[in-house]
Design a protein that fits this description.
Distance between the termini of chain B: 37 Å
Oligomer: heterodimer
Radius of gyration of chain A: 14 Å
Radius of gyration of chain B: 13 Å
Largest interface: A-B, 23 and 24 residues
Number of helices of chain A: 0
Structural class of chain A: mainly beta
Helix content of chain A: under 10%
Number of strands of chain B: 10
Amino acid sequence: AQTVTQSQPEMSVQEAETVTLSCTYDTSENNYYLFWYKQPPSRQMILVIRQEAYKQQNATENRFSVNFQKAAKSFSLKISDSQLGDTAMYFCAFMNHISNFGNEKLTFGTGTRLTIIP
Amino acid sequence: GAGVSQSPSNKVTEKGKDVELRCDPISGHTALYWYRQSLGQGLEFLIYFQGNSAPDKSGLPSDRFSAERTGGSVSTLTIQRTQQEDSAVYLCASGSLAMNTQYFGPGTRLTVL
């Protein structure tokens, strides 16, 4: 079974600064996907960024980027030029992929509550 | 286009009553998932539908929980004889094989008194 660990329950940073959220995972699989989801107080889970395990290049989406270290099973999220709207819970998630069948469930970490301070 | 929708947004019920929660996935998505988010358990998988295949029910916590998906689209999660520990936010997500990504609805907050 896969596990996902987020060791930072809470973080805070000044507006416009850069912050990095940590995530490690454990799996014996080779073909999988990793995600960061954001959950603001509205409770809507919003996809932030996705990484395919077979790709060595780190994914980037505007101010959001990841540092994917497959051998270390590490998947951190970097938020640059943080904005007040980035305040939310951030969940790291793992999804196994089975070719010709489809995908499996998401396994989530316990989340990091990020607060952006004005 | 329209995202995943869920209804009701909030549901308050009395212990022992049955409840039905509804999920409308994104049009064309063949995969549909239910998750539960509670204070003590975090986010946990409940059930997964993929096309016409038999659903993966491995996450359902008890036989009081069931789900169906009609016509490969709308899904209903039913909780019978609700207990206080069923209080949680129930999240639905949908996805397609090509995209390998799950998109979530806004959730239903269930409160069992």
